[in-house]
Design goal:
- Strands 3, 4, 5, 6, 7, 14 and 15 form a 7-stranded mixed sheet that branches. This protein has a 6-stranded parallel sheet with strand order 10-9-8-11-12-13, with helices on both faces. Strands 1-2 form a two-stranded antiparallel sheet.
- Helix 3 packs parallel to helix 4 and helix 6 runs parallel beside helix 7.
- Helix content is 26%, strand content 26%.
- The protein folds into 2 domains: 185 residues, Alpha-Beta Complex (Quinone Oxidoreductase, Chain A, domain 1), CATH 3.90.180.10; 147 residues, Alpha-Beta Complex (Quinone Oxidoreductase, Chain A, domain 1).
- The protein binds NADP nicotinamide-adenine-dinucleotide phosphate.
- NADP nicotinamide-adenine-dinucleotide phosphate (NAP) binds next to helix 1, helix 3 and helix 4.
- The site of NADP nicotinamide-adenine-dinucleotide phosphate has 27 residues, from helix 1, helix 3 and helix 4.
Amino acid sequence: MHTRDAPDAAALPGARATCISEETALVRVVVRGFGGVEQMELVEEPTPVPGAGQVVVRLTSIGLNHADLMARKGEYRLYSGDPPFTPGLEGGGVVESVGEGVDTVRAGDRVVLTPEAPRRTTRSNTCGTYRSHYLLPADKVFAAPANLPDEALGGLWLPFLTAYGCLVWRQQLREGQFVAIPAASSSVGLAAAQVARGCGAIPIGMTTSPSKIDRLRAMPEAPFEHFIATRNADGSDADWYHEVRRLTHGKGVDVFFDPVASGFFLDTEIRSVANYGTIWVYGLLGQPGKVDVTPLIRKHASIRGWVLGEIMDAGLDTVHGACREILDQIAAGAYRLPIGGTFPLAEVGRAHEEMERGRHIGKLVLIP
Ligand SMILES: NC(=O)c1ccc[n+]([C@@H]2O[C@H](COP(=O)([O-])OP(=O)(O)OC[C@H]3O[C@@H](n4cnc5c(N)ncnc54)[C@H](OP(=O)(O)O)[C@@H]3O)[C@@H](O)[C@H]2O)c1
């Protein structure tokens, strides 16, 4: 999916990839080879000078994503290409300098990079956001809402656009519908709960970590109506089918928004989905196993895949329209990004390890 236009400096009109100031150091993470966190290295480069129509953004926030971990390991080559490459799919910060002809933003403005800005091209796999400064066209940034903290500027799109794109743009979620959201403590799961509430739907948070439920209940960013623990305290799978039936008054769940969806988990979803319901699969967290799909026939229900690339492929008007709606909701205080942890960019390896442990609640962010 990550093959869209990217800020490949050498390919942009007015770009001056070789014309760089030697005064300030730019830092960038490079993955030298597929493998463990030891493959990531911080390199210094001179800060770029923006060409005509370009801006340089000093990043204050870089969202960490499972896709970055998969890319590092060599499990997501569409994203990474061959090493060496720079990971990172999202970012935001403060405009440091602007090139000739730029009048839409000024130095000092706080901005969010558009979701398509850091996508890899066939020419460049060094355009990821794991870096201190980002050179890109001026029309590839959105003005940041004043109430969005600096550390959250770079972590919006993977959680909110993934949830909004699926539940609003594709599913057209309706008032009163039950939406079950596995990985409730994940950044995407928390965004999905807020998006579902915005539609008047009833979000049910499902978590593999019973110990997280009390913490989630206390968070305004986790507006779930109900919670279900899908694992027992000893780590074994819980049979949560009857709990879903009880919470939905025997009807079942209208929509599953699920990054686990495999084996026993998917089997139970199929049993728990309502007539005409939909199971949206958007991640690969679960373990493969036997699944009985026959209840789908009787219920006229469906399983569909979802990837952020679907709304990106719909064109800039659509994807930027969705982004603006999300930014408006943030400005109004209806959507909030919960930060689950921040790490200095220099400690990127520790950040990857923490994401893999899965103890966090909310978005993990790198701070250059
Ligand atoms: N399709 C797309 O376009 C798209 C876009 C963005 C992200 N994603 C995917 O969405 C998922 C969540 O991303 P994120 O950045 O929000 O991650 P995250 O914040 O790191 O959340 C990970 C959470 O997932 C749950 N989890 C982990 N392993 C699990 C397993 N084996 N079985 C069940 N649940 C498990 C845990 O939550 P609990 O403790 O609450 O269970 C864990 O804390 C990832 O799989 C990611 O690749 C897909």
